[in-house]
Amino acid sequence: AQSVTQPDIHITVSEGASLELRCNYSYGATPYLFWYVQSPGQGLQLLLKYFSGDTLVQGIKGFEAEFKRSQSSFNLRKPSVHWSDAAEYFCAVPISGGYNKLIFGAGTRLAVHP
Amino acid sequence: GAGVSQSPSNKVTEKGKDVELRCDPISGHTALYWYRQSLGQGLEFLIYFQGNSAPDKSGLPSDRFSAERTGGSVSTLTIQRTQQEDSAVYLCASSLGAGVRNIQYFGAGTRLSVL
């Protein structure tokens, strides 16, 4: 069965530092992969997605993620974090079956120190 | 354009009461999803509607939970005889179609507190 693991529950970085949030998945075929962000009191906003092709995908707000099949990973990165990036980040895969019912990881809460 | 709208944004109820949560999807989106976000369980799929097809109710946790979608647009999630473990944020999402390449757009959610 499909699953998503986000090993880090909380991460704290300093403003301007680089960021990497980890996501590992279990999926029977080439997966579709998503990263969503949730700011306090807000719904989820799509940051980026991987469907196929280039394994390095660019998203909004300066984020990127790299699909590594050999490691079953889809880690999210940003070279320089801004205070406004403080939020909770979710990695997700769709369950197979023809539509995109999403399975989410447990989330990583990012805190940014000034 | 307008995004997914959910109401109310917050709901406090007493144990045993029924509650209704509303979702207005993005106009033209044929697929609609309900998810629940709770401290213990994270983000869980509840139910999915696509056009006029029978809904996928496989994620509903008990028969106290039901949902309907009228006219292929607005959806209502109903929880009967609420329990404290129902306290969570209920998120609605919609997408243009049903395939995996259709991006889900989420509302801000309804925070339900059962006292």
What does this structure look like?
The complex is a heterodimer of chains A (114) and B (115). In chain A, strands 2, 5, 6, 10, 11 and 12 form a 6-stranded mixed β-sheet that branches. Chain A has a 4-stranded antiparallel β-sheet with strand order 3-9-8-7, with no helix packed on it. In chain A, strands 1-4 form a two-stranded antiparallel sheet. In chain A, 0% of the residues lie in helices and 51% in strands. Chain A has a single domain, classed as Immunoglobulin-like (Sandwich). Chain A has no helices and 12 strands. By secondary structure, chain A is mainly beta. The model of chain A has no long low-confidence stretch (mean pLDDT 92). Chain A has strands spanning 3-5, 10-14, 19-21, 24-26, 33-38, 44-50, 56-58, 64-68, 73-78, 87-94, 102-104, 108-113. Chain B is an all-beta fold. Chain B is built from no helices and 10 strands. In chain B, strands 2, 4, 5, 8, 9 and 10 form a 6-stranded mixed β-sheet that branches. Chain B is globular, with a radius of gyration of 13 Å.
